TrEMBL record:
GO annotation, cellular component aspect: nucleus; troponin complex
GO MF: actin binding; troponin T binding
SUPFAM superfamilies in the record: Troponin coil-coiled subunits
Functional note: Troponin I is the inhibitory subunit of troponin, the thin filament regulatory complex which confers calcium-sensitivity to striated muscle actomyosin ATPase activity.
Coiled-coil intervals: 6-85
Subunit structure: Binds to actin and tropomyosin.
Species this chain originates from: Salvator merianae (Argentine black and white tegu)
A biological-process GO annotation: positive regulation of DNA-templated transcription
Signal peptide: none
Keyword terms: Acetylation, Actin-binding, Coiled coil, Muscle protein
PANTHER family named among the record's database cross-references: TROPONIN I, TROPONIN I, FAST SKELETAL MUSCLE
Family (UniProt): Belongs to the troponin I family.
Protein name listed in UniProt: Troponin I, fast skeletal muscle
Length: 163
């Protein structure tokens, strides 16, 4: 396993070196230095011209980058200002019947009746024993006044709690 991995690594490094050599051969022509002084000066002038072109392109891209970052900062500042100034108004409850709401949505030409209460059943309430007992007890203050003092305590012992 380790030997296979080692051979694969060697193959990868060799392939990378080959790729690097082909890239340099395509993009960087081999440098041949001329023997005379005048040819060297011409070569230097060409190289300086290429360096100036690259510097101009770099400067242009930097200026574009600065301009876009400035614009982005301005827009984010405007967004922040707008968020800070705008306050949401408190919403109020609108009391509107279903009929009025449908009239507002559909217009006055459409006659739609949404009387939901008419569809409800009439249910009679039956009194239960617990409710009757609660009504019969009456006011709780009367019971306490009757039980207060010595007479109330006598009644509790004699009559089983005054009930």
């Amino acid at each position: 396993m380790l030997q296979i991995a080692a051979t694969e690594l060697e193959k990868e490094t060799a392939a990378k070196e080959q790729e690097k050599a082909t890239y340099l051969a395509e993009h960087c022509p081999p440098l041949h230095l001329p023997g005379s002084m005048q040819e060297l000066q011409e070569l230097c002038k060409k190289l300086h011209a290429k360096v100036e072109e690259v510097d101009e392109e770099r400067y242009d891209t930097e200026v574009k980058l600065q301009k876009t970052t400035k614009e982005l900062e301005d827009l984010s500042q405007k967004l922040f200002d707008l968020r800070g100034k705008f306050k949401r108004p408190p919403l109020r409850r609108v009391r509107m019947s279903a009929d009025a709401m449908l009239r507002a949505l559909l217009g006055s030409k459409h006659k739609v009746c949404m009387d939901l209460r008419a569809n409800l059943k009439q249910v009679k309430k039956e009194e239960t024993d617990k409710e009757k007992d609660l009504r019969d007890v009456g006011d709780w203050r009367k019971n306490i006044e009757e039980k207060s003092g010595m007479e109330g305590r006598k009644k509790m012992f004699e009559g089983g709690g005054g009930e």
